[in-house]
Amino acid sequence: MVLIHGAYENAPANLARFLPVAREFLIYALDTMGQSVMGAQTQLSTRDNSYGEWVVDTTDGLGLERASFIAASFGAGIALRAAAIAPERIEKAVQVVPSGIASGPMLRMSRELFLPWALYFLFRGKGSLLKATAPMMSENDGEFLAFVDAFLRNARFPSAGPRLAARGELAGFTAPTLIFVTDDDLFFPGDKVAARAGEIIPNLADVVQLYGKHMPSRASRELINRRILQFLKASR
Fold this sequence. Notes:
single chain; alpha/beta; Rossmann fold; 2 domains; six-stranded parallel sheet; 14% strand
């Protein structure tokens, strides 16, 4: 099992969200190049298949000819790049609030997210931090607040997330795929992702719609882990 985290996160934090799965499966949690303080700092292009090639090279180094993948947010778009160029390497795929399928409106993101981020740069108060994170969080999360604070103070912003998969690009990707979306995701709206996933992913097992924003709630994460285990164990 290969685990790929979201933008500017890291493998240990991501693994902590999938501990029920880790208790039953051997997981290789990757630190994505250019996206984690614990990995190489070189950012790869998100406009081509560079990150997909990185996944293939990394799994080669781990001796994994074929594996199941759990990928979230930015990491899900990376997994789709791997699916486009090396579909035979993926046994099953789980995508949580995924990039790479459909995106939200830039005007809304600018108004509800980028403006509060800019205000936080100016004022640095707890109140402005809460406003900067509210569009992403389904519920208050102290660890995520600390992460966003460190991110806004220190990180280089990526030029863009992984590009959207083109129609027909995943025609050779036949691995069963389970997707989780949320109904109020500012970045990747659940309804848009669900609709387009049905058009571009050949073996879409299910799209599970959750209530909340881009960062699922604790209750949603428990459900996600249960459904992932059911999915991975089916026809095992």
